[in-house]
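FAQ
Q: What does a multi-component entry look like?
A: The components come first, one per line:
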Amino acid sequence: MTATEQLVKGTRERPAQAPLRRFAGPGAVALLVCVLPLVLQDYQLSLVNSALIAALGALALTVVMGFVGLVTAGNAALLALGAYGAAMGGAEMGLPFPVVVVGTVLAGGLVGLLAGLPALRVTGIYLAIATLALHFIVVFAFNEYQTQAVGSAGFFLPIATIGGLAIDTTFKWYVLLAIVVLFTWWMVQNLKRSKYGRAWMLIRDTPLAAASQGISLSTYKLSAFIISSALISMSGAFLAYSQQTVYIESFTLELAIQYIAMVIIGGMGSAGGAIAGAAFVILLPTILSRLIALLPPDMYAAGFLQQNLGDFQLIMYGTLVVVFLIWRPDGIAGLARALSTMFLPGRRESAKR
Amino acid sequence: MLSLLVGALVLSAIYALVGFAWVLLRRTNGILNLATGAQLALGAFIFNQYATSWGLPWPVVVLGTLATVVALGAVTHWLIFRKLAGQPEFALVVATLGLASALKGLSSLTWGTEARVMREPVEGRVVELLDGVSTTLYGIFGLVAALVVFAAAHAFFRYSTTGIRMRAAAENSVLASQGGIAVDWVYVLGWAIALTAAAIAGIMYAYQTTLSFHGVDALGLRGIAPALVGGLTSIKGVIPGALIIGLAETFGVKLFGGSAQDVAAWVVILVVLLIRPQGLFGEKQVERV
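Then the predicted structure of the entire assembly, as tokens:
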């Protein structure tokens, strides 16, 4: 259903589903969340944690890229904003973790407003230019700050504590991140179905129709960018606290493109897809190096692949973005939907609606 | 003071070439090419491969680089952007970001990341222009290259049939193809010219500094600044744009130290977006519906 059809028909009426099917999805997610820490080792769970933090950023990016159809290259800058906010607030000023998180959300929203305001008065691509400028200026500023404050090693953060409870194990981080990601997921899904979500998708599909419905294009675009910026900045704070170090070299333009890859691979406009895309992008290097380890170790190619894993990652993310854009703009989420209609005949009916 | 101005002028020539690559693709192919930086670096590294690593004779180096870059442009169009035809602008911009990532990986895989010094066609002699005002021979090369490219582009788009076809395809691709213009070849030509200009800029910059992916890539991205100042779609607008960026960067470095080089252009971009987003010569692109 396109946004236009949704607007005409209204989204309130949802297909009547059998209770079993209706709760199957959330039930499976809940089961997965509970089972993962039981079956995974500590290292594997820490990978899941990285994927969850990335999922937070990807969910945020879905709002602005998937719902509104805007390109932003400022993801790494906003992550850096959150991370350095955490470094300043948590390490330098000694503020408690929850206060720092709220602070980074506000800072992210403010920077989103400042960067988006001039750019979104004009057509969408100007946001790509403004966020590119944001990236280089933010990285420059934090680099200067880091050099003056602590030097090139970067900042070390204290252990995050919430109301006296120290989050000092992988498992505790997992619980916290799972709660935050599930809440964000729920929020993004609700946003999508709200007045704002419908307006955003209408702007994406047919700006002309949106404007004639009395939707202010620049206000709605700006609101999406502000929400997204605030959330990405927050995920930067989580990233900094969970790794307990912050240094500027990790915030590259390639990192920004990685987040875009998550959204494109996962499927634009699908919140579940964004989480799947984040998991895919974060786990890809590990999966690749495991696969390479299966090759005979005396093979030249195996050593070459292992040594240049970083470069292969860049190539794969870039190629996958282009391939998905051409072949399946709806990403993994669309693939999953297509497969489920193919193999689960009962779903065919509801998918057609 | 005068030597600073000469330095700014030499830098502006390079920015003019990069800005030209941005504007040409935006105008002819309708693509905001965020992979310009990576492509600039790729062009310079290909040149370096022929010139330094293989030590080929200079005419072969120049023709070989040109042929490779043009072929790359054709591949880029047929393999990626031809297949994205009809998709919203959003998809095109994201595809260029993906392309940038892939090219960076490829380049780093092939040539590594450390800085290199390229084989020189002549000794990089310092040329004394006036008393105490000097530049390198490569600075002058860059200026000449920029002048030649702009003069050729002007003549090409105004007088040649192909150039007029390119303008027609840029204005309305459907009407142009109805009128018998092979739009795909126009787009291939757009990529070829843009990548050639970018490669020239990358090579000139690498001769004036050193060749490193990071440095040349960053230059290519900053090249969006002169394009934006000029209005993104105006070729003649690139020249004042490049002069402004060249001056801003030179004086930024003079006043705030070497690290200002990395941000001067981006600050100008934010200022332009604030005051006059359509640039000096661009049409107003405000969405009024």
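Q: Is there any commentary attached?
A: Sometimes. For this entry: Chain A has a mean pLDDT of 88.
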